[in-house]
Structure formats: structure tokens, C-alpha cells
């Protein structure tokens, strides 16, 4: 009771969410995505890879209640605060940022739906098609798409093996892209 009264639980959730977000960004910034799998190393390419990892994590904890639901909301808010900050660093005006955030939010939630549906059904072809459509819409035949889809499937399985208590404590692991390349 006192913990809730003084907000300690809320601060713990925020601390966990920020730690999770830092780990999600680190997973998304693995050089192999950009060097071996030809994800564009651009602001939008980085947005796509962070989105992939956000979706993987949120997919894992969906349906969970209590602290994890609160952490998921804080994590999502932190993601969009980071997007807002990045847009401002890119020189987008204060007037233009909300419009861009709205567009990027639609993009993110559309990706979340298509990636989650493909993961739920185990449809690697649909997952690869969604990745290609979202990450490299400029390329007709992106040869590395199946590898990224396989990485997402394996990361999803790896996340499923991790205890929820680790997430509540701000710890998450996705696995290494280099492990995927070597297998």
C-alpha cells in the first residue's frame, strides 16, 4: 500500500521500461542488419529495425496485466518520445513534428498488426512479405528478407522462453544477428 501511495511501483515500471527500450534500440542497431542484410542505415531504416524489435517485445507481453501492461505503455510512450526527438534533430519544425509523428504512429501500428499476425499464424512467407514491403519498399527482390523473417521468428521464440519477471525487472534479450548469419 505504501509503495503505491508514494509511487515507488510507478518509478520501478518507468525504470524497467527505459532499460527495456535501451536494450531494444541496441538490438536494432546491430551492425549486421545494415552490413549483411542490407537494411538501409538511414533514419527510416533505423526506425524500421527499432519497430521490429518493439513489435517482437510487445507481441511477447501482449495480454499480460498489471506491471507489464504499464511497462508496455511507458515503453511505447518512450519510443514515440525518441521518434519526436529524432525528428527535431533532423530539423523538422515544431509545426511539422506532430504530423510526422501521426504518420509514423500509423506506420508502426500497421507493422505491429502485420508482423504479429504473421508470427501468430507461423506464416514465414507473410512475415517476409511484410518486412520487404515495410523496410525496403524501393527494392523489388530483396534477397535478405527471408533471413530477417527467420531472425524475427527465432527472436520471438527466444523471447517466449524468457520469464516475465525478467521483463518486469527491465531485462530482455533478442539474440544476435551474427548467430543467425552463421547458422
UniProtKB/TrEMBL annotation:
One Pfam family named in its UniProt record: Ubiq_cyt_C_chap
Domain of life: Bacteria
Residues annotated as domain Ubiquinol-cytochrome c chaperone: 36-174
Protein family per UniProt: Belongs to the UPF0174 family. Belongs to the CBP3 family.
Protein name, as recorded: Ubiquinol-cytochrome c chaperone
Organism listed in the record: Tianweitania populi
Amino acid at each position: 500500500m505504501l509503495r503505491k501511495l508514494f509511487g515507488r511501483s510507478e518509478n520501478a515500471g518507468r525504470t524497467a521500461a527505459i532499460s527495456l527500450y535501451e536494450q531494444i534500440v541496441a538490438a536494432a542497431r546491430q551492425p549486421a542488419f545494415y552490413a549483411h542484410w542490407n537494411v538501409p542505415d538511414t533514419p527510416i531504416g533505423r526506425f524500421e529495425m527499432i519497430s521490429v524489435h518493439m513489435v517482437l517485445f510487445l507481441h511477447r507481453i501482449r495480454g499480460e496485466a498489471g506491471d507489464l501492461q504499464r511497462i508496455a505503455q511507458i515503453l511505447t510512450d518512450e519510443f514515440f518520445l525518441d521518434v519526436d526527438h529524432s525528428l527535431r534533430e533532423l530539423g523538422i519544425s515544431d509545426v511539422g513534428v506532430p504530423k510526422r509523428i501521426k504518420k509514423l504512429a500509423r506506420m508502426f501500428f500497421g507493422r505491429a498488426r502485420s508482423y504479429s499476425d504473421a508470427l501468430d499464424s507461423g506464416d514465414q512467407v507473410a512475415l517476409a512479405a511484410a518486412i520487404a514491403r515495410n523496410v525496403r519498399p524501393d527494392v523489388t527482390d530483396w534477397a535478405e528478407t527471408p533471413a530477417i523473417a527467420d531472425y524475427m521468428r527465432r527472436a520471438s521464440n527466444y523471447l517466449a522462453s524468457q520469464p516475465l519477471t525478467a521483463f518486469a525487472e527491465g531485462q530482455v534479450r533478442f539474440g544476435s544477428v551474427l548467430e543467425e548469419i552463421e547458422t
